[in-house]
């Protein structure tokens, strides 16, 4: 009778431990999904600012059509990638960031544009969104890290494999130049 009772207590303990691990995995998966949703919201905010910025810039930069076209095409590619994986989305977002960076660099050559209050407001709004994207990306990547640790660690990896929990994908920059430390020179 004691052996049966001991086995029953151990079985209940294992089941309770399994439920706790399962719930932790579910929580981590939800945090990853919440993090990705946060990134997606910020990326959509950025994409919605771009047409207004392009319209403001077109009047001043008529002969910079290549730069304007690059931003337009990169934005269209990003908008067409709705359910893309984080790595695919990262590559497209990197292209858009690069095109926007070139647009801002070219805008520096136009003093009237730099003084335009609409352009300045849009530029400030875009910078705010870029900061929000960075924060959302950090949150998402932290949630991915927690999920991946849970999926790979023992004994949660046993529960994860039984219930088809898989590692999540980080949202990283594709362009190595985006990771480079800027060169500052005071000449």
Give the secondary structure arrangement, pairings included.
Layout: H1 2-58, H2 65-79, H3 86-107, H4 111-115, H5 117-152, H6 156-162, H7 176-179
Helix pairs in contact: 1-2, 1-5, 2-3
Description:
With 187 residues, the chain is mostly helical. Helix 2 packs antiparallel against helix 3. The protein is built from seven helices and no strands. The C terminus is likely disordered. It is 78% helix and 0% strand.
Helix content: over 70%
Q: What fold name goes in the CATH topology slot?
A: de novo design (two linked rop proteins)
Number of strands: 0
User: What's the shape?
Assistant: rod-shaped
Q: How much β-strand is present in the residues?
A: under 5%
The helix-and-strand class reads: mainly alpha
Helical segment tally? Answer: 7
CATH-level-2 architecture: Up-down Bundle
**Stretches with pLDDT under 50, minimum 5 residues:** 176-187
Mean pLDDT: 86
Radius of gyration over all CA atoms, rounded: 24 Å
Order of helices and strands: HHHHHHH
Structural domains: how many: 1
CATH superfamily: LemA-like domain
CATH top level class name: Mainly Alpha
Note the gap between the termini: 87 Å
For the sheet with most strands, the description reads: none
Describe the structure in brief.
The protein has 187 residues and is an all-alpha fold. 78% of the residues lie in helices and 0% in strands. The protein has seven helices and no strands.
């Amino acid at each position: 009778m004691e052996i049966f009772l001991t086995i029953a207590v151990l079985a209940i303990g294992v089941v309770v431990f399994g439920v706790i691990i399962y719930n932790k995995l579910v929580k981590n998966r939800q945090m990853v999904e919440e993090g990705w949703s946060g990134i997606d919201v910020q990326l959509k905010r950025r994409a919605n600012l771009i047409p207004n910025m392009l319209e403001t810039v077109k009047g001043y930069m008529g002969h910079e059509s290549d730069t304007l076209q690059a931003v337009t095409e990169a934005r269209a590619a990003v908008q067409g990638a709705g359910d893309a994986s984080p790595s695919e989305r990262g590559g497209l977002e990197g292209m858009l960031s690069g095109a926007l960076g070139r647009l801002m660099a070219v805008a520096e050559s136009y003093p009237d544009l730099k003084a335009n209050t609409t352009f300045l407001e849009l530029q400030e709004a875009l910078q705010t969104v870029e900061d929000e994207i960075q924060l959302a990306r950090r949150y998402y990547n932290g949630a991915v890290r927690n999920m991946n640790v849970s999926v790979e660690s023992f004994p949660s990896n046993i529960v994860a494999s039984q219930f088809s929990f898989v590692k999540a994908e980080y949202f990283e920059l594709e362009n190595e130049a985006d990771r480079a430390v800027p060169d500052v020179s005071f000449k």
